[in-house]
Amino acid sequence: MSAIDVNQLGKRFSAGARAVIEDLSFQVSPDETLCLLGPSGCGKTTLLRLLMGLEQPTSGSIRIAPELAQHMSYVFQEPRLVPWRTCLENVLLPLQLLGRKNPAANTRAHDLLHQLGLDERLHHFPGELSGGMQMRVALARALVTEPRIVLLDEPFAALDERTRFRMQDLLLELKSRLQLQYVFVTHSIAEAVYLGDRILLLDRTGSARDWRAIDFQERDQLLKLTPAFNAVVQVYSQLFSDMERAEALHVPRATEVRA
Ligand SMILES: Nc1ncnc2c1ncn2[C@@H]1O[C@H](COP(=O)(O)OP(=O)(O)O)[C@@H](O)[C@H]1O
Ligand SMILES: [Mg+2]
């Protein structure tokens, strides 16, 4: 059975408005990680919010396997920390709200903040942290509840390159160590190829332009230097420029031709 099953999904924000997501169908297998890739404004955030249940579909359906649906968490595009709580208090907040604040959870919060390089900032307030540090606190807050699946909306876009690479590797490590599944939104081709077992490429009409498996046995930063990795990046660069050319020329999509 699929982990995520999206069937003919459509989303309009108001009657008469253009569809942000249109006739979108895909399935994600158990343990498979998915990257959503596409140009700005194509509906990536909207799709992620639909998966989380923060938006309702206008048509079609989304089914998330119950064992995942009960243990989901979400990382917004902005950190959204509580300004009057320290780093540590922000990370502990979901546990407090769920009534699960106990010594083990407290240790987990410390461990996560340690792995995210925030040991020295535990008692600092968000206003005293850089944007990148705030994002790492948001990531720790999403992971502290031990989710089975986490949905992340361009979480590393504001980080400097070295930190961004460290965070990518942390996510891969959590995936293999904790069997953490994720859906990761990005507009970076290399990031999608590095982090996704599958990539869903969306075009500006929120429809699937491409859907394929990315099959690398070992993933570490050195992979990015290999011809195999760069060949896949090249495929997506070509798909992106084909898409832009088609939009510029208003070439109808295959589905529109059929209609
Ligand atoms: N709450 C909303 N109400 C109306 N339009 C929205 C809303 N959220 C997003 N949109 C529109 O949907 C489109 C896709 O937005 P979004 O999902 O944020 O794209 P992306 O994340 O790929 O940049 C944009 O045209 C955006 O203006
Ligand atoms: Mg977005």
CATH homology group of the largest domain:
P-loop containing nucleotide triphosphate hydrolases
End-to-end separation in angstroms reads 32 Å
Total discrete domains: 2
The percentage helix is 25-40%
CATH fold type of the largest domain = Rossmann fold
- Major sheet summary line: 6 strands, mixed
In the predicted model, the low-confidence regions spanning at least 5 consecutive residues are 254-259
Written overview of the protein:
With 259 residues, the chain is an alpha/beta fold. It has two domains: 1-71 and 150-157 and 185-259, Rossmann fold; 72-146, no CATH class. The protein has nine helices and nine strands. Strands 5-6-7-3-8-9 form a six-stranded mixed β-sheet, with helices on both faces. The protein starts with a strand and ends with a helix. The relative contact order is 0.16. Bound molecules: adenosine-5'-diphosphate and magnesium ion (MG). Magnesium ion binds at residues 44-45, 77, 153.
SSE blueprint:
Blueprint: E1 4-11, E2 21-28, E3 34-37, H1 44-52, E4 59-64, H2 66-69, E5 72-75, H3 87-97, H4 103-115, H5 131-143, E6 149-153, H6 161-178, E7 181-186, H7 189-195, E8 198-202, E9 208-213, H8 227-249, H9 254-258
Parallel strand pairs: 3-7, 3-8, 5-6, 6-7
Antiparallel strand pairs: 1-2, 1-4, 8-9
Helix pairs in contact: 3-4, 3-5, 7-8
The structure holds adenosine-5'-diphosphate (ADP) and magnesium ion.
Q: Which key terms come to mind for this protein?
A:
alpha/beta, binds magnesium ion, six-stranded mixed sheet, 9 helices, Rossmann fold, globular, disordered C terminus, binds adenosine-5'-diphosphate, 259 residues, three-stranded antiparallel sheet
